[in-house]
Design goal:
Strands 3-2-1-4-5-6-7 form a 7-stranded mixed beta sheet, with helices on both faces. It contains 6 helices and 7 strands. Helices cover about 35% and strands about 20% of the residues. It has about 200 residues and is α/β, with parallel strands linked by helices. It catalyses: N(1)-(5-phospho-beta-D-ribosyl)glycinamide + (6R)-10-formyltetrahydrofolate = N(2)-formyl-N(1)-(5-phospho-beta-D-ribosyl)glycinamide + (6S)-5,6,7,8-tetrahydrofolate + H(+).
């Protein structure tokens, strides 16, 4: 059984999809804890599903590195096989990446390497492209620059706003995240290939 710790900053819609998937006894992974860098709305999903949670507030530490040390201490308590970033809006400090890489995955609302960074949906709309997408990647020390595990295109429709486009992308992100977790648990993706 693959042990997952999910890190969030916001509403946690991808987290909720993972929690729902793992309710199936046949699903080969379990979320063992949910962490956040602030008092995120998505922590309510952990509570609803009876999953322990923790908050390591970024603003409570004098530096990114000090925050990273505190986050790393929390992660180690849960002994995850894979750390899932699901809307965590902070770059992980190097010591966290080094401790768990390549077993850190992240969802991103664009067809990487197109539109990396915090505003992938807005950037795609501003660029006037006909399609964007969703990706699941391995986290490295760059910005959305790690190896791509799964991705799929999403057409941009006339009249799309950032909100409408992002909602369609989120649906795809959830599917891709669950597929990636299944592939990891079933050894269809071997993280050792990325070490």
């Amino acid at each position: 059984m693959l042990r997952l710790v999910v890190l969030i900053s916001g509403g946690g819609s991808n987290l909720r999809a993972l929690l729902q998937a793992s309710e199936d006894a046949e699903f080969p992974a379990r979320v063992v804890a949910v962490g956040a860098d602030r008092q995120a709305d998505g922590l309510a999903h952990a509570e609803e599903f009876g999953i322990p949670s923790f908050v390591v507030p970024f603003t409570s530490y004098p530096s990114r590195e000090a925050w990273g040390d505190a986050l790393l201490a929390q992660l180690r308590e849960w002994e995850p096989d894979v750390v899932v970033l699901s809307g965590l809006m902070k770059l992980l400090p190097a010591q966290v990446v080094e401790a768990y890489a390549p077993a850190i995955i992240n969802t991103h609302p664009a067809y990487l390497p197109e539109f990396p960074g915090a505003h992938g949906v807005r950037d795609a709309l501003a660029a006037g492209v006909a399609e964007t997408g969703a990706s699941v990647i391995i986290v490295d020390n760059g910005v959305d620059s790690g190896p791509i595990l799964h991705q799929r295109r999403v057409p941009i429709e006339p009249g799309d706003t950032e909100a409408t486009l992002h909602e369609r992308i989120k649906l795809l992100e959830r599917e891709l995240l669950i597929q990636t977790v299944l592939d990891l648990a079933n050894n269809d993706i071997d993280l050792k290939d990325f070490a």
